[in-house]
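pinned: reference chain
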Amino acid sequence: MKCLITGANGFVGANVLRAVLETKKYEPIALVRPNSNITNLEGLEIEIRYGDITDYDSLKKAMKGCKFVFHVAATYLFWSKNPQVFYETNVKGTVNVLQSARESGVERVVYTSTTGAIGLSRTSEPLDESALYNPPPHFFDPWNLGDHYSRSKILAQREVFKKINEGMDIVIVCPSAPIGWGDYKPTPTGLLILKFLNREIPFYSDVGFSFVNVKDVSRGHVLALEKGKKGEVYILGGHNVFLSQVFDVLSEITKFRKPIKFPRSVSSFLGQIIGFILEIWASITGNPPLITRAQAKASKLNLFYSSEKAKSELGYTITSLEDALLDSVKYFLSRNMVKKKSAQKLSHLLNSSL
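pinned: its structure tokens
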């Protein structure tokens, strides 16, 4: 049974593809844009079909003969000089994938959304899938962050629900903050770890994240295909921890000192001012700002989520935070993404395990 995976060369997509391969039950087909970096697909005996989710004709060709589709492709950035790219890829691209899947006779689509499209928490109490329909008192609407990534994923998710209401068999999975092998760009989440390794984080705000091993997320996608209920949403989360706890583990792994922790209220206020200035400068230079206003605003909130529904209905499991962080460190080292001075101190980790 052939499964098309959009964004198959990306961080999550490549891991989903490998998880599909491991089942030995399906034949994964990688949809990759022409001239893309396919490092994450090296050494795999798979079929690659070239196309773009914003190009409907190429999608139709890519889906030929496929029984299932994992729609993973997305623009995952916190800033772009051209904000329209978020809506072209994340919204229009998703509509194209779903319409093409329907016309191609695809039996089921697993759509990769994000916990950020569900909401954020004003407290340390995690959110679950019910926040989409019945927001609890500690709920913060992600639309109010004002960033184009969050808004585009919210709009894309609405389009998915429309297709579900029209009768399509779609299962929605919402990963939290994936880390681990294959983050070659890296994603904003992985960049946090890479900046720690490169000693580029002088201070931080102790924000709460649900960090999850991308391998857990990828296995969760396969479980959603096989066990997910039509039209349901499943959070694929991990460990609800504050950044201070993450830096504790990273310090243990690397023996590097932790950055300085700032009070959250102070860092949010200053961050929004700095973010405003940096965004103006970024619009001139084209280089992404170190921090955006939306990121600064989010520093007062927590990205804590419950995966109990995925555990009970899919059999989803969560592996250790230490293993996920070590996977990230080793991947960045293996790809020469860590600055020379730091890399020399960490070279022994390439062949180590916790």
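why pinned: The two ends are 37 Å apart (CA to CA). The chain has a mean pLDDT of 92.
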